């Protein structure tokens, strides 16, 4: 498999993380290569580097296990595409650990082709756009001031933004930071369908927060984004009190390890199947909490204000609506990224 990862900051080395967290059996990784992408699945031949794990090219991941590679010396450009090629010499679990709806093409070919720049005989997205086993690519840069983790659901994941274009709002934020000369890594830990309380679309937000946010390398800031939208936009909505309690719990857990929290207001969703006036009242109560001086948030990303229609704050501004009344389009993603005061990440 050749999988494409878009960088935020550049650096002098990379480290690849692989996971078999949800596998039902062991998976053998035959070898892994990293290279700069040229176009499609093709790579810049001179950039290809072998990735090792404890000095070995091959590694076996038992069910539930994860691993980080050895650092690989690599001239990593900022805001660029890296190709990570993973060779699987044997069968894998019928439902491998992965991330559906990645909005990024994945390329698959028969044979041990990780070092082949052209990736001969490839097919594209045989099971849809998704990442498999690959969970992180860390970039080492001694000038970096830290990592900001975007933690949320489908809006963070980029649903309804353009495929293969890196127009998710965390991507747009990475561009803003780069343009401002700030060397801050941006990690997207959004999972479409995720919510605070219920496992299903990944583990519930409260359950995965420590692993997916607090345990990230170099983390100094976490943007708590849109999980609560999915706790409201349902036939069994959570109460505003419970969702405010979830925000408070995550803030306390982050502050306990000296990580700052940027709280996001919840974007509007009038026009969706489950919207009601009562649910809207809950959304407004949560946003009032987030914006209050007593919330405990270290900063606020006012996503609601960024994309709402001023004449109808319960609805998207039409120019930012993807068409489903729930997810922003590319322009809406940019508006969210533009709404963050970059001084909150200094």
Write the layout of secondary structure elements.
Blueprint: E1 2-6, E2 11-19, E3 27-29, E4 31-39, E5 42-43, E6 49-51, E7 59-61, E8 66-68, E9 72-76, E10 81-87, E11 98-100, E12 106-108, E13 123-124, E14 130-132, E15 134-140, E16 146-152, H1 154-157, H2 169-179, E17 184-190, H3 205-214, E18 219-224, H4 227-232, H5 240-255, E19 260-264, H6 277-291, E20 299-301, H7 303-307, E21 308-309, E22 312-316, H8 330-338
Parallel strand pairs: 16-17, 16-18, 18-19, 19-20
Antiparallel strand pairs: 1-10, 1-12, 2-8, 2-9, 2-15, 3-7, 4-5, 4-6, 4-10, 11-14, 12-13, 21-22
Written account of the structure:
- The protein is 22% helix and 29% strand.
- The protein is α+β, with helices and mostly antiparallel strands.
- The protein folds into two domains: 2-136; 144-345, 3-Layer(aba) Sandwich (Rossmann fold).
- Strands 1, 4, 5, 6, 10, 12 and 13 form a seven-stranded antiparallel sheet that branches. The protein has a five-stranded parallel sheet with strand order 17-16-18-19-20, sandwiched between helices. Strands 2, 8, 9 and 15 form a four-stranded antiparallel sheet that branches.
Give a quick summary of the entry.
The chain has 346 residues and is an alpha+beta fold. It has helices spanning 154-157, 169-179, 205-214, 227-232, 240-255, 277-291, 303-307, 330-338; strands spanning 2-6, 11-19, 27-29, 31-39, 42-43, 49-51, 59-61, 66-68, 72-76, 81-87, 98-100, 106-108, 123-124, 130-132, 134-140, 146-152, 184-190, 219-224, 260-264, 299-301, 308-309, 312-316.
């Amino acid at each position: 498999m050749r999988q494409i990862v878009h960088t935020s900051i550049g650096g002098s080395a990379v480290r690849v993380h692989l996971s078999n967290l949800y596998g039902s059996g062991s998976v053998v990784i035959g070898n892994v290569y990293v290279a700069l992408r040229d176009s499609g699945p093709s790579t810049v031949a001179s950039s290809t580097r072998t990735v090792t794990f404890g000095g070995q090219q091959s590694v076996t991941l038992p069910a539930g296990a994860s691993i980080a590679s050895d650092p690989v010396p690599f001239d990593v450009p900022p805001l660029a595409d890296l190709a990570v090629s993973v060779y699987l010499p044997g069968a894998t679990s019928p439902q491998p650990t992965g991330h559906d709806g990645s909005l990024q093409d994945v390329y698959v070919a028969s044979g041990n082709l990780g070092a082949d720049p052209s990736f001969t005989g490839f097919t594209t997205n045989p099971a849809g756009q998704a990442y498999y086993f690959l969970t992180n690519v860390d970039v080492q840069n001694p000038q970096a001031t830290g990592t900001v983790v975007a933690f949320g659901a489908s809006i963070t994941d980029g649903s309804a933004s353009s495929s293969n274009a890196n127009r998710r709002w965390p991507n747009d934020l990475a561009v803003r930071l780069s343009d401002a000369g700030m060397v801050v890594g941006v990690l997207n830990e959004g999972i479409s369908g995720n919510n605070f309380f219920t496992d299903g679309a990944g583990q519930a937000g409260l359950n995965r927060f420590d692993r997916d946010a607090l345990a990230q390398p170099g983390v100094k800031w976490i943007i708590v984004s849109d999980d609560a939208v999915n706790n409201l936009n349902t036939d069994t909505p959570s109460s505003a009190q419970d969702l405010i309690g979830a925000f408070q719990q995550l803030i306390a857990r982050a502050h306990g390890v000296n990580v700052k929290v940027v709280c996001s207001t919840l974007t509007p969703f009038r026009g969706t199947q489950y919207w009601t006036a009562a649910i809207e009242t809950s959304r407004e109560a949560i946003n009032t909490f987030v914006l209050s001086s007593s919330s405990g948030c270290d900063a606020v990303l006012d996503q609601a204000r960024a994309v709402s229609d001023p004449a109808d704050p319960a609805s998207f501004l039409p120019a930012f609506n993807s068409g489903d009344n729930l997810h922003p389009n590319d322009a809406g993603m940019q508006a969210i990224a533009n709404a963050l005061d970059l001084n909150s990440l200094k």
